[in-house]
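Deliverable D5.2: sample structural annotation.
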Amino acid sequence: MNNLRRKTFYTIFFIISLFIIFAIFIYNRQIYKEEYKGIEDNLTRMRKVIKNNDMPEEKGRRNDLRDELDNRLIMNYYVYTVLLDRNNNIIDRISHNEEGFNERVTNKIEKILNEKEESEIKIGNLYLNSFAYNFNYGISLVLIDTKLIQDRLLMTLFKSLIILIISEIVILVISKKITDWITEPVEESFNKQKDFIANASHELKTPLAVITASTDCIDVNKKNKKWIENVKNESDKMNNLITRLLDLSKSENIKHEGLEINNLSKIVEKRVMIFESLAYEKKVNITTNIKKNVMFKCNIEDIDEVISVLVDNAIKHSEEKSVVKVNLYQDKNNITIEVINKGNEIKQEDKEKIFERFYRADKSRNRKDNRYGLGLSIAKNIVESYNGTIKVSSDDEYTTFIINFKNRKH
C-alpha cells in the first residue's frame, strides 16, 4: 500500500512539475528571443545605414554620414558606432544614446580592433556576454552594450526560479491531497482485506483445534489409519497456514513503542545457529561473517523472524553441498545484513513479486514443502517498519537477499 501511495504521489508530482517547468522555460525562452532579436535588428539596421553610404574619404561626406548616424537615437539599448579607415584606424566615434563612451566600452572596442582581422557579427549568449557587435574590417564597428539586457534576463530567470520553488511547494501539497483522494478507496479495500485475513485466521483456529484434538482421540486401526494420518497432515498444513496468516497480519500492523538498544550481532548469530540442524539435513553448510557489537534499536522477536525467514528460505533453495553465507556489517550509520545461497536463479520478473503475499515462483515445490509464499512478505513488512529496505539480487549461481537499516541515534 505504501508503494502504491508513493508511486501515485511521485507520478502526480512529476507530471505537474514538468508542466510548470515547461511553462517557465517557454516564458524565459520567449523573453530571451525578443531581446536577442532586438539586438540583431539594431545591428542589422546600423549596418545597412553604413553600407548605403560609401566610406567617405572627404571630410564633408564623412560629416554627413556622422550626422545621419548621430541623429539615430536608439531606445532601450546602448549603441555605439566607430567609423574606420581602410587601415582599420578609428576616424570617428558616435554614441546613439545619452551615455557616452565609458571605459568599459572603450576597452572592448580596442580589444575587438586589436584581435579581429575579419568581419564578424557576434551576439553570443546574452546570459553570459555583456557586449554584442557587428564588425566590418576597415569600415565600421557597431557595438551594443548588453549589460542591462543581461541583468534583465538574469533577474527574470531569478524570479522564475523563485516562482518555481513556490510552485513546487504548492504542487507538493496538491499532490499529497490528490494521492490521498485517489488511494483512499484502495486503502480502505486493502485494510478490509487485512482485517478479513486476521479475523478469518482467528475464527479458523478454534475448529481446527477441535479437529486435531478429535483426531487424536480416535482409535487407530488398519482400516482408518490412512485416513486419520491424512486428516492430521492436512490439519498441520492448515495450522501452519493460519499461523503464517496471523504473523502476516501482525507484521502489517507493527507499532514500535518502547524499543531498546540490542546487540544485533548476537541476535543474528543465535538465530542462525538454530538452523544448523536443518542445514545438516539438507546437506548444506552455513558460514557467518558477523561484525561484533553492532547495536541497533529494535525488537528482538522482529529480527528473529526476519533472519529465520531468509535463512530458512536460503537453505531450502540451496544446492546440496553448497554454502549459505550470512553477513552482518556496519558502515557508519548504515547496517547491512546479507543472506547468500547457491541455487536456481530468480528471474528478473520475479524479483519484486517474491515479496508479495501468496506469490510462489515454483508452486509445485512450495506446495510440497508446505510453503505458502508469506515468509518474504512478512520479512519485508518488518524491515520496512524500521524504515529499512530489503532487496534481492540473483545471477546464474548465487542469490543474495540484502537488508539495509539506518542506525537510529541512541
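Annotation notes: The radius of gyration is 39 Å. Confidence is low (pLDDT under 50) at residues 56-61.
The annotation will be released with the project's public dataset once the embargo ends.
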